[in-house]
Amino acid sequence: MTLPPLTLPPHLARALATRDAPGPPVHAVEVGGSSVQSTVFAGGTVEFAEGPRPAADPGPFGLAAPGLVVDGRVRGATQLGWDDVEAWRELGYPRRPDVSMNDADAAALGEWLLRAERPGSLLYAGIGTGLGGSLITGGEVVDVPLSHQTGFGEAVCDGCRAPGCLNARIGGQYLPRRLDAADKRRVVDLLATAIGRAGVPRGTVVVLAGGLVRRTHPDLVAALRSRLGGAYSVEGSAAPAAAKSAAYVGLLDRLVGEGRTG
Ligand SMILES: [Zn+2]
After folding, report:
1. 204 CA from centroid of ligand 1 (Å)
2. Low-confidence spans in the chain with pLDDT less than 70
3. What topology is assigned to 2-105+242-256 in CATH?
4. What Gene3D superfamilies does UniProt report for this protein, alphabetically (predicted)?
């Protein structure tokens, strides 16, 4: 599916247009629990494609995955069966990515960049196979204790293995496929409690996204908004519907972005 470059913030559209030349295209790969998506920039357009795009001589590329992601190596992404994996090799690439990021960090940065009015502070909470959380303050990724915050009962998450982990309660792999009204209340309650405990500054824009929210339960956005009661503004994803998440924007920003104004 090909979309106009409105799927990119202007500074990235400009940067990519000036680099667009014959040869392997710039692309971003997002690995998730249920699918892998590549976002390829070529011929002035952005195309979302299923699967990775390895080539003998790949163009500049970025990689996002759950877990601790450093230089293409992924640790602790148990929902993928990746305890410690050279993800680029696993995906068939002949070399390490030029940029690699945790998927929630990349999506948070992408959500921030896709907004015409960039908020001073943006919290991304993504419910997919796992729960991802990341805070952007002043345009930079800041650690926030959200996805593996403890104090939520006894359940143990496969990733951190700490009892009472929030991910073990509301990560998608620990939830029923279809949430009933009680499940939704529980997800929203626990998430709101965790946001309060995480020290997220008041006035922060909270983006509630991830596959479970965007594809199956978009009504969770309004439910969280009313539960948080005005302390934060709660929004859905600004990523195009065809995109797995806004992570491709965060990756492309790290790959080619300069001068984020406008
Ligand atoms: Zn955990």
Report:
1. 24
2. 1-6, 20, 259, 261-262
3. Nucleotidyltransferase; domain 5 (3.30.420)
4. 3.30.420.40
The whole-number pLDDT of residue 261 equals 58
- Residue 99 alpha carbon to ligand 1 centre in Å: 25
Provide, rounded to the nearest whole percent, the portion of the chain with pLDDT above 70.
95
Domain boundaries, the chain: 2-105+242-256, 117-235
Superfamily of domain 117-235 in CATH is ATPase, nucleotide binding domain (3.30.420.40)
In this chain, the answer to whether the domains covering 2-105+242-256 and 117-235 adopt an identical fold is: yes
* CA 11 / ligand 1 centre spacing (Å): 36
State the distance from the centre of ligand 1 to the C-alpha of 146, rounded, in angstroms: 10
| CA 41 / ligand 1 centre spacing (Å) | 35
Distance 247 CA to ligand 1 centre (A): 21
Q: Let me know how long the chain is.
A: 262
> How many angstroms is it from 122 CA to the middle of ligand 1?
22
